[in-house]
Amino acid sequence: MHPSLEGITLICFDLDGTLVDSVPDLAAAVDLALADLALPVAGEARVRDWVGNGSRVLVERALTSALGQPPEAERLEAAHARFLHHYGQAPNARTRLYPGVREALEGLAARGLTLTLVTNKPAAFIAPILGGLGIEGCFARCLGGDSLAEKKPHPAPLLAMSDHFEVPPSRCLMVGDSRHDIAAGKAAGFRTLAVPYGYNHGEPVAASGPDGLVESLAELV
Ligand SMILES: O=C(O)COP(=O)(O)O
Ligand SMILES: [Mg+2]
């Protein structure tokens, strides 16, 4: 048993940058939204550093970069609506599971652990993405960035999982790629585990002080 799992019965997984490399499709939708507004496109490398705080903040960062200043509320709403439209058309065109993810999820579920998903991505995209990759059956419950009033780094969605499954936070593990996952996990009283290969605004996630770090989720099984 991996030391991070000792005493753990419930795991909350982050999605983008932890289970799936979704930046190619996120960047495509951001660029289509920018083009709709006759603004210069951003490209994958920059979008990678902007992911992590949900779709509205992603679009806000893209507009701020394109305009050289923060957007007005009306322009942000228009661009966000265009982003949601485009991303909804093809959330899975180039999105892929990271190596080891499928084996890890299946192995952990087979051991009787309760697996859940807590993403800052809008909830509407969760089922199409998990379904497209064939991993929807691994999760007992999923929450998106708009499922509750608060999203990560707030601990609310993690505590909602702990409450729902009646598992005390000390027996819960948050697994993620960004400082928002680690901060939410710490604030919820969960153990925290980081993966270094995802998106963390260009900084190493180890700087957030997770309880553990694995190069691949396959190490868990
Ligand atoms: O949509 C985002 O900004 C990030 O989503 P995540 O919480 O699954 O990493
Ligand atoms: Mg993430």
TrEMBL record:
User: What EC number(s) is this enzyme filed under?
Assistant: 3.1.3.18
Q: Name one GO molecular function term.
A: metal ion binding
Q: Which UniProt keywords apply?
A: Carbohydrate metabolism, Hydrolase, Magnesium, Metal-binding
Q: Which GO terms describe its biological process?
A: carbohydrate metabolic process; DNA repair; glycolate biosynthetic process
Question: Transmembrane residues, as ranges?
Answer: none
Family matches, as Pfam families? Hydrolase (PF00702)
| Superkingdom assignment | Bacteria
The active site annotation covers D14 (nucleophile)
Q: What SUPFAM superfamilies does the record point to?
A: HAD-like
Output the Gene Ontology cellular-component terms: cytosol
What is the top EC class of this enzyme, as a single word? hydrolase
What cofactor is needed?
A: Mg(2+)
The residues that the entry says bind Mg(2+) are D14, D16, D177
Q: Which pathway is recorded for this entry?
A: Organic acid metabolism; glycolate biosynthesis; glycolate from 2-phosphoglycolate: step 1/1
Q: For this protein, what reaction is catalysed?
A: 2-phosphoglycolate + H2O = glycolate + phosphate
Q: Which family does it belong to?
A: Belongs to the HAD-like hydrolase superfamily. CbbY/CbbZ/Gph/YieH family.
PANTHER family in UniProt: PHOSPHOGLYCOLATE PHOSPHATASE (PTHR43434:SF1)
Purpose: Specifically catalyzes the dephosphorylation of 2-phosphoglycolate. Is involved in the dissimilation of the intracellular 2-phosphoglycolate formed during the DNA repair of 3'-phosphoglycolate ends, a major class of DNA lesions induced by oxidative stress.
Protein name listed in UniProt: Phosphoglycolate phosphatase
